[in-house]
Amino acid sequence: xxxxxxxxxxxxxxxxxxxxxxxxxxxxxxxxxxxxxxxxxxxxxxxxxxxxxxxxxxxxxxxxxxxxxxxxxxxxxxxxxxxxxxxxxxxxxxxxxxxxxxxxxxxxxxxxxxxxxxxxxxxxxxxxxxxxxxxxxxxxxxxxxxxxxxxxxxxxxxxxxxxxxxxxxxxxxxxxxxxxxxxxxxxxxxxxxxxxxxxxxxxxxxxxxxxxxxxxxxxxxxxxxxxxxxxxxxxxxxxxxxxxxxxxxxxxxxxxxxxxxxxxxxxxxxxxxxxxxxxxxxxxxxxxxxxxxxxxxxxxxxxxxxxxxxxxxxxxxxxxxxxxxxxxxxxxxxxxxxxxxxxxxxxxxxxxxxxxxxxxxxxxxxxxxxxxxxxxxxxxxxxxxxxxxxxxxxxxxxxxxxxxxxxxxxxxxxxxxxxxxxxxxxxxxxxxxxxxxxxxxxxxxxxxxxxxxxxxxxxxxxxxxxxxxxxxxxxxxxxxxxxxxxxxxxxxxxxxxxxxxxxxxxxxxxxxxxxxxxxxxxxxxxxxxxxxxxxxxxxxxxxxxxxxxxxxxxxxxxxxxxxxxxxxxxxxxxxxxxxxxxxxxxxxxxxxxxxxxxxxxxxxxxxxxxxxxxxxxxxxxxxxxxxxxxxxxxxxxxxxxxxxxxxxxxxxxxxxxxxxxxxxxxxxxxxxxxxxxxxxxxxxxxxxxxxxxxxxxxxxxxxxxxxxxxxxxxxxxxxxxxxxxxxxxxxxxxxxxxxxxxxxxxxxxxxxxxxxxxxxxx
Amino acid sequence: xxxxxxxxxxxxxxxxxxxxxxxxxxxxxxxxxxxxxxxxxxxxxxxxxxxxxxxxxxxxxxxxxxxxxxxxxxxxxxxxxxxxxxxxxxxxxxxxxxxxxxxxxxxxxxxxxxxxxxxxxxxxxxxxxxxxxxxxxxxxxxxxxxxxxxxxxxxxxxxxxxxxxxxxxxxxxxxxxxxxxxxxxxxxxxxxxxxxxxxxxxxxxxxxxxxxxxxxxxxxxxxx
Amino acid sequence: xxxxxxxxxxxxxxxxxxxxxxxxxxxxxxxxxxxxxxxxxxxxxxxxxxxxxxxxxxxxxxxxxxxxxxxxxxxxxxxxxxxxxxxxxxxxxxxxxxxxxxxxxxxxxxxxxxxxxxxxxxxxxxxxxxxxxxxxxxxxxxxxxxxxxxxxxxxxxxxxxxxxxxxxxxxxxxxxxxxxxxxxxxxxxxxxxxxxxxxxxxxxxxxxxxxxxxxxxxxxxxxxxxxxxxxxxxxxxxxxxxxxxxxxxxxxxxxxxxxxxxxxxxxxx
Lengths: 762, 224, 269
Fold this sequence. Notes:
The complex is a heterotrimer of chains A (762), B (224) and C (269). Chain A is 30% helix and 18% strand. Chain A contains 25 helices and 30 strands. In chain A, strands 5-4-19-18-17-6-7 form a 7-stranded mixed sheet, with helices on one face. In chain A, strand 4 (116-119) and strand 5 form a beta hairpin. Chain A is globular and about 140 Å long. The N and C termini of chain A lie far apart (90 Å). The mean pLDDT of chain A is 93. By secondary structure, chain B is mainly alpha-helical. Chain B has 10 helices and 2 strands, in the order H-H-E-H-H-H-H-H-E-H-H-H. Chain B has a domain at 130-222. Chain B has a two-stranded antiparallel ribbon with strand order 1-2. Chain C is an alpha+beta fold and 269 residues long. Chain C contains 7 helices and 8 strands, in the order E-H-E-E-H-H-E-E-H-H-E-H-E-E-H. Chain C has a 4-stranded mixed sheet with strand order 6-1-8-7. Classes of the chains: A alpha/beta (762), B mainly alpha (224), C alpha+beta (269). The A-B interface holds A 1, 4, 6-7, 10-28, 31-32, 34-36, 38-39, 41-42, 46, 48-49, 51, 53-54 and B 3-4, 7-8, 10-11, 14, 18, 21, 23-24, 27, 30-43, 45-47, 50-51, 54, 84, 86, 88, 90-91, 135-136, 172, 174-177, 182, 186-188.
């Protein structure tokens, strides 16, 4: 057979066609078609979550001080979901968005995964990974050096909290080491505690028994937005909505105001005047608790002291606050004031609460005092449904510390922030005064080493830029944060702590709850990265320092320390997850006042001590607000949103995802403004504007919101981070950077609820 | 089917053209012969070579003896492949379940020794190859079938319980799934012998559901 | 055809959301993200490409200060029954790929990601914007992949997703029921993640056909209404409000029309 080119082609074609025809009669093409279609759906980069037995672990959320019980759902030992613990006495199953996003704090790009040492300039973001040994040696070495120079007091520690064993262990370390400078982030609680101390002579946490109240008069407290423990308050709202009346007083229709039975808008900063005005009506109309006043009150009526000097009593002093005047100050309709006073006084279990928003701002002592006294004339002290004091937990007791001479000398030095000094005798911490002291000091900085744990001051402090400058003066900053927050990213060393779901700790009662509840946060997973429990880290540093510092910590590790501390409670806590130490109602009235008069002091005599001459009786003096009204025609006011974390722990990506476009748009903060105000300025909804305050400026977008008092601009806390990860950084403006601190003359605490501002179109 | 028709049309057109060519009169038969070579060749390739090429062969990490285990446990298949308290099916037992008996070597069988030394002692899960593995989008309720419809394990998985050795795992090189899912018969003609595992593609589910319940069921019945 | 499937004994799972209670906290959204492996991006402020199975909208009555009121409106998939409750949900009717169907046993509208080829007809058909499209492959940065739930399959780019009323929870409840040889599910056995998460208890979930379930009564509450009721999509999500302006915001009313007084189009069977 001769094969020429033509026949070769024919034969080849024949083979191919034969092959094609034959293959149609085999499974190959059909099977391949099916397999290929399956193959196109195999996307190996789409994760396939591993299945496993579903189990639950009970723990408690430590992302805020609320102390809500959580159930962690695990699949094959892998945590996959957070839910509220229905049996937990604090939140009864209710949880806030932050609690639900807890797994994004366990895993996520914001975590610091190993100890780090700074390379390059501060805040530049260049780090060298180091071992734990190296990190501990570096910090211990620096501390040992300062101690051997006889200046242990030049070490300061900023903590996010002073409650519970972890802050107490660190506090103990500072004492043994010899520094009085343990500083804590201030909140509204600080001002309330002082008001309680001034009137009742007792130290402890304020308790607002919302559980048993039926009429809640809120002076701007974000009852449904994070005040008083989010899980607890939301649960109470859900369960008792029909049985409780809520009256919300604030200049902006917040989420709380929107759900309140009545929203009363008030000129910001004049809450004290309203409280006193309401008291005025109650006294005038004899709507106060006579029995309480007659038996337990001091200084309600005019009185004469041992020297024969006559003093005005509270009842006389509030004559200065008739409804007409209060209406003028507060901008509330005159007729509304007596009406509100009567409603409050006649309710079966009324309670008045203060603390703006989530209570992140301490506020003035006058305001806390005025609201407390309003409760007092309603006979609301140490009563079911009223205001009382929760003493410090009795379990927080450890063997006394023996300190050496160096430490003793150090401890005698005045505190860097002036808290507890003659100027501010009743204040425990004044973190907001730290920057100015640092900048003002001549020569070597008064703080040579700063330890930061559980706090993020370079984000939360007023006038962040100034705070950062002040921190520049501190030669050594060590952060113990599990996250690359603003402060950690500005540190020299990071010794990362575990995150809440990995960290063992006990959690004392939620803010404001009337029972002593301790819960145990048990780790639900083994540490994911190379992190150490901050308690262990401090014990280790103490050991490295040796001597008396070492002997102050006879415990092997934090767990041993915790067990030793909790003693009998440990077993219950370990088994049940929480323990209620006492169900008791507040003690009977006659036992509880440790004041000079032994009574509840409407005229707080303790307020006289110190160098300053502050009238003891609460009075309304407008809280000064920074800025020249000629230059700045508007007022900027921060507000708290439940979907944004404005404090030491920042947002998880899930929380930022829930934020509406009228709060954050791409990278720009959106601010609320009353349409009438904006139109007067010739601005339109959605306009991009430059917002300027005496402290700084930012580009923001306008959102026309009818629910805000004309003349105000409202901006949420919790945006404008510069650190963490791409999911949080560079989104909007940090409102703290636009507002400076204003110290309360009495306590030194920050009272700046706003700042004058102006906007110009870009 | 249309593609087949088309191909055949093309070939019948091509054939006359070849016949008409004066230069190769006798090549008509040759063309046909070559056609048949191609035809038969591809039949052989498609039916015999193709399945061998499509599937790669893997052995289980341990040659597991189901028969031996079944003879010493009390509760049949359920002893190791059990329902959890929440009604979900545990599937392949994890190391924890095995360790109850196999903390140490019991029989000295080389496979057991290998199991204890390589997996139990270092605490590593055995990477069993799952003949019934489904894609992530599938939700299969063992409870609905075994308890709800009272089906036996064998009705889908075959007589695996009496096997003394593991079968070779044939993995589809394209899809990554086991050959069992498509069914051992490459043609999917006829039904598997009793005792053979049943194919587990969506159509197989739908077919059975249609027969047993009267309808194929809604998407979410088997998808997640 | 499909309608012939008997649905006389069938369940119709539905939801009643009390707008007088909702505080707009957003816990339902976050609980849903976590339960259903909903992805997150670095910028989620463009709500057109932000994936939410339930989204809380903020409504205002548009009255000037200080008479302004706001109300939060959480919107999951409405799980429409369609005209005559025959399962002709707007989205199901248009899907060319049968990637979404109506389950006559539960009344829940499915979405099968591997089946969907991303034409987005369903999104155009849905009057409630309940469906979202994956323009990009979801990313799970820095080990976040480790917290994904095995009960809901993660999505890929090019597919539509939406609220499933946590159907996997229904499946898991049924598995338990099978094990205990029960036919019936208790009301509490099957609850969606958002219902369970709502910290103020504003969401109630259950079988609208079952007299013993709370939703059965609540749906007939005088405060109850549904969104865009006149489209006859027959949503299984009901809302409660005592405010007329909220109710008016739930549909398009002419000035003279009063919500609740509109003559309803007769349902045909």
